[in-house]
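== Sequence and structure of one protein ==
=== Format: two labelled lines per protein ===
==== Data for this protein ====
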Amino acid sequence: MTNSQYRIQIHNAINEIPSSEWDALVEGNHPFLKYGFLHALEEHQCVSEKYGWIPHHIAIYDTQNKLAAALPLYEKHNNYGEFVFDQAWEQAWNSIGLPYYPKLVSATPYTPVLGQRFLIQKATDNPEKKNQLRQILFNSMTDFCETQNMSGAHILFANPEQQSWLANQHNENSYIRHDCQFHWHNQNYQTFDDFLAQLKPKKRKNIRQERKAIQQTGITYRILDGHKATKKDWQDFDFFYQKTFIEKWSTPTLNIGFFKSIGQSLADNIVLVLADLNDECIAGALMFKSDTHLYGRHWGAAKEVKHLHFEVCFYQGIEYAIKNGLQVFEPGAGGEHKIARGFSPVSMQSTHWLPFNPFEQGIQQFIKQEQQGVDAYMKECIKHSPYKSE
């Protein structure tokens, strides 16, 4: 596909795109949008036909054949790893004999994290040009969706600025869904005690008791980046990861090859928290960092120890964010238990483009009720905020 200024191409593998040009479009050192992360998923078959994630990344090249913009994009044959649930939509389509799959999804696989979806050259300061490139990406996605007879195209977890742009397009085929996550916000804390000082006495006491109980077990912690993590460290963590998914009767799509690969390609973004007891690694959490955010992703343990999950996944992460001046800690989707530990509800949106919608009124009512439910849920969560000022 071409237009007067740009050449548009759909790539079925990210290694068809120059890695340095792709990374030049990524803002804020965002780990899950970097070439190394997306390439590792593809190289180690974490996204593939087997798991229902098939790459179709859209690239826009300028007249010098340099990458000007891109959209990470996947053909989906299930909703696994999306964290925006549409089983009810699938059932509705199937009820009248229409296939819901395949569909298109722009997201980072298995990663419910806010970020760019429209990757634009950073030198593109002209708002009109930036919006033009966004529009070309969006139109290319919807054109591809229609020509391939897919049921829809879905943009998940776009950052607030890009989600606002999507919401303002007033496309009659687009629908905005709402959800909620829990994030921790750094209020210029210098120490973990500074953070605790902002909590109500009972909540502060509970956290201190949890941490003290873990401390008395003799467990120690290692926080490693990709440079320091050894082959054995990754083997240990891969064991924890696989064990957690299997015990939950779920599918562990990541593997040791993927972990070792990102340990090298994203070495500076890696925050691997490992818990040791009696010279044995017993648990771990894999986190990532950008220039401003810490992201909690996966956790697992060889043995059950009370409060260990909270310590490894939350408190160690909060301490790391404070020490390194990170503004926000996103620990992952779900979990009301996060509220008592200092995480606050944050509104999330996603955009869903449906070229043919036989349930227009039903979808609109579904979305309206869903938004009302999310709003009510967030208000209820705020009532239980552990912070003194709320």
